[in-house]
Amino acid sequence: MINRIEEVWAYRGMLVSIVKRDLRSRYKGSFLGFLWTFVNPLLQLVVYSIVFPYILKVTQENYAMFLFIALLPWIFFTSSLQGATTSIVAGSNLVKKIYFPRIILPLAAVSTNLMNYIYGLSIVFAALLITGVHLTVNVLWLPVVLLIEFIFIFGLALIFSSLYVKYRDLEHIVNVLTFVWFYLTPIVFPITIFPEQIGEMVGYNPMVPIIESFRDILLNGTPPDWNRLLYSLIIGVIVLIVGVLLFEKCEKTFAEEL
């Protein structure tokens, strides 16, 4: 593991270059360009803010911010998985021609979406102020929660990207998985809407403490529930270790499979 970290660090220039390229090319040629980073979540916010409070009668106070604070880290989660899953295949020309740590490709996909989330925080902070929510000193815990989410996402990214090289149906499976996962995570509604037994089962979803920690910090101005967040961290570390081991095993045949 340490050797892998040292190798990635040695190729950090390549990682930064790929992330910059992806950020520039994502909206190249579009009229709004980089503004789409903000437009997409805002459009989703408008739709959900209409559907759930007015049509499905969700009575959550300050629902727009309740939703928006959770929606952005969820977009980071799903966009990272979808982008990382196909990253090795998409970078097949590099994989077959030159040597570099292949792990750079899924790492770059996750890092690109991390940057998009960080840029999106400017909209979150502005929206909080507009809606009368004041930030507290607990906002300093935000990088910790974001790191825990990053660890969990990156572990899944390594698993999916390594398997996708051989099993191309995985891209569609990931799309279905994230769709179902969305409704098993308290993003558009509080977890309290579930019956007690189902709510306890949903609580084993490692994204639940992460999403609720973002709300604690930004919406409620309180520190996260460290016991529950520790659970997400442990799951994330386990997934990351499995991901690294699987990736190391599969990458030996990447060039042949591609």
Key terms:
single chain, 258 residues, globular, mainly alpha, 74% helix
Q: What is the strand and helix layout of this fold?
A:
Blueprint: H1 2-10, H2 12-26, H3 36-55, H4 63-85, H5 87-90, H6 92-97, H7 104-130, H8 142-164, H9 170-183, H10 196-202, H11 207-220, H12 226-250, H13 254-257
Describe the model:
The protein has 258 residues and is mostly helical. It has one domain (2-257). Helices cover 74% and strands 0% of the residues. It contains 13 helices and no strands. It has helices at residues 2-10, 12-26, 36-55, 63-85, 87-90, 92-97, 104-130, 142-164, 170-183, 196-202, 207-220, 226-250, 254-257. Helix 8 (142-164) runs antiparallel to helix 11 (207-220). The longest helix is centred in the middle third of the chain and has 27 residues, at 104-130. The model has no long low-confidence stretch (mean pLDDT 86).
